[in-house]
Fold this protein.
Amino acid sequence: MPSPKSLPRRRVTTTEDEQSEHDFTTGHGFDTGHEVLLSRRYPPRKAAPGPYKVVAQLPARNGQFQYRIKSGCEPFFRIMAESELERV
C-alpha cells in the first residue's frame, strides 16, 4: 500500500461565487457584512421590512449557526438562526 506522502495531491479550486456562498473556515453560510432577508418560511413577525446586515457570526445553538443582524429601520440588533435567513 502506498504511503500518503507518495499519493498525488488533488488541488481543489473554487470560484469567488462558491467561496462567498459558504464560509469554509467557520462553517457559517453568511459572512459579516452580507445583506440578508428574514426567511418567508417562518410565520410573520413584527420586524422591519427589507434587508438586514450581518453584524456578527455567532456560535451554533441547537445545531444551527446564529447571526447578529441589524436593520437600518430598527434601533436594536436581532439574533437569528441561519435557517431563518435568506440571501438578498
